[in-house]
Amino acid sequence: MQDSNRIKIVFTGCVGAGKSTAITTISEKSVISTEVKPSEASVIKRKPTTTVAMDYGELTLEGGDKLHLYGTPGQRRFEFMTDLLTKGALGLIVLIDNTHEDPLDELDYYLNLNHSFLLQRPAVIGVTHYDQTIQPSIDDYYDALAERGDPWPVVRADARSLADVKLLLNTLLAILEYG
Amino acid sequence: MGIIFLGNYIFSNLVKGVVEREMSVEKLTIKLLGFSAPEMERFSAILALAESRLQQAWQMTTAEDADFFLLPSEQLKASLAADISAARCLFYTDDPAIGNLILSDCHKIPRINSLINVLNHRGAQKTIEITANAEAIPEPASPSSGESAPPAPIESQPAPSANDQPADTANFAPDHGLLSALLEHHATPILIKANTVVICVDPSQKLYYCPLSLTQLIPYFDPGIAPQVKPISVPEMQELVGKAKLPPQPLNNLIWYITFKTSQGRLLQGTAPEDIVRLLHWPDLTIPECGHYAKLAAFMHSNTMRLADIAKTTSYPPASVYDFYNACTVVGMTEKADTVQVHEKVADLKQQTVLRKIRDRLKF
Ligand SMILES: Nc1nc2c(ncn2[C@@H]2O[C@H](COP(=O)(O)OP(=O)(O)OP(=O)(O)O)[C@@H](O)[C@H]2O)c(=O)[nH]1
Ligand SMILES: [Mg+2]
Question: Do B271 and B330 form a contact (C-beta atoms < 8 A)?
């Protein structure tokens, strides 16, 4: 899975943002996920299970090639997985749960974590759980990105919706092609 | 994608004269075959929007009989409506080479001007047929009855242009209807009533409240509708939206979408195709249809270019580039520049093939 010739896109972002859900929503095959009971206090509060190691799903492309989709674990002690998973990826979908205590701080954290990858490759920011709270607003995300000098698009997305997950991927492709 | 009508019968001045004298057809009916409920809803919305500019009254019907039938594509005619004469069928098609083309978007929302052209041509023709046959046997209306070949053209005129530029004005000015009411400066919340719909706007928070979705609101975008605007207090607004349990929506999305839908391929007043522009912010790609402009948005976000060259380079039709540019400009997301700045990309053919394959797989 660390083979850098693989065609792959990585979903990253905070605990409970919907990385596992998004990959399950779009993947052809049933997703390989390593869900366990969370051990970090901040996670226990939010969800009954969390991903350790990674999520994996795939889509078959014309000619038999596969698009490999990876999801990173949200718990911060698995941070080291990020470098392994993003190696050779086309780009990054950063999912942020808008109901998180400080979503903009989470955004900052994941962009910093992937700083060197993002010098070469693009990201799309997907804001999930926006149906539950509209604060911070999408404009607040853009302000935060502008402060960092990052050009990435911010898209409201529900990880359970196929159309939304497709929109995230399509936006990433648009930047790869035209950005 | 577009709509065509089969046969190449042109609406002539001669026909028009007769139609104006002899409005024997009160309402022409159109039945949609093979469309999903949301697609029918969108067609109905555009038909309602077009109403004031149609020479006949048109009505969608679900009855078995209809004057005209709209089909998703010519290919489906065989299975869905084999026994209806070609003269009574209108189609969606992808083939831009066919005359009398109406551009429609990927959601099968026809462009209003094109819809008006086609329905006016076909409606006039139908009216003259009925007028001519007034004393003869009327054309069988049931799809199951046998029908003759379509009548010969009355006059050979060039088919209406496939490019969707409206004839009336060359430029788009956002100074009418709902759009103009939304763009005016308001110090307090307002209630806007456009025909039967009421929209509550909170300018300070840049939010609006409305029970209808953006696509359901399309009929109220008609620049011919003069909306009533009533200022209200913040507590009044809170009570109103609280009672109706309306969720707040970004006001810029409404303004973006009205501009996008009503521009109709006309460039915003005060802008020329030679103007050099750039996109400062990404529009909300979840606005209906906007997601299909992600490539254009990505391109305009990283390149500063003449509008005319953007269309050429990205292969989006100029009309679509203008609609998109207008919508982004009206919400303050674009900027004009003095010099062109092109972000040179190293063409990576292998990656381009991969991207195309992914895009095909996603069928976006
Ligand atoms: N209401 C709402 N629920 C959502 C949305 N997106 C995802 N969800 C739900 O939020 C939860 C997300 O859980 P996961 O997909 O496990 O999240 P994750 O990012 O993989 O989390 P970790 O693996 O713990 O880092 C699921 O229960 C989803 O059904 C959204 O936009 N709105
Ligand atoms: Mg997970």
Answer: no
What is the identity of the amino acid at B99? G
Task: Say if the Cβ atoms of B351 and A164 lie within 8 Å.
Answer: no
Span from the CA of A15 to the centroid of ligand 1 (angstroms):
8
Q: Dihedral angle at the C-alpha atoms of B324, B49, B166, B214, nearest 10 degrees? A: 0
Chain A touched by B298 (CB under 8 Å)? yes
- Written as one letter, the residue type at B256 is W
Enter the tokens of residue B19.
Answer: 């139609």
Whether the per-residue pLDDT at A166 is higher than 90: the answer is yes
Q: Is the dihedral of CA B29, B35, B36, B38 positive or negative?
A: negative
**Rama region for A27: left / alpha / beta (φ>0; ψ in -120 to 50; rest):** beta
Is the backbone of residue B363 left (phi > 0), alpha (psi -120 to 50) or beta? left
Residue A43 CA: nearest ligand 1 atom is 24
pLDDT at A48: 72
Taking CB atoms and an 8 Å cutoff, what residues of chain B touch A137?
Answer: 250
Q: Where are the domains of chain B?
A: 15-133, 174-256, 264-362
How high is the mean pLDDT of chain B? 77
**pTM, entire model:** 0.71
d(Cα A84, Cα B71) in Å, to the nearest integer?
A: 51
Say which residues have a Cβ less than 8 Å from residue B339's Cβ, sequence separation at least 6. B276, B304
Strands A66-71 and A91-97, how do they pair?
A: unpaired
CATH of B15-133, one of 3.40.50, 1.10.10, 3.10.450, 3.40.630: 3.40.50
Contact, A106 vs A96, CB < 8 A? yes
> Could you tell me which residues are beta bridge partners of residue B29?
B59
B196 by Cβ neighbours in 10 Å (0-12 / 13-18 / 19+) ranks as exposed
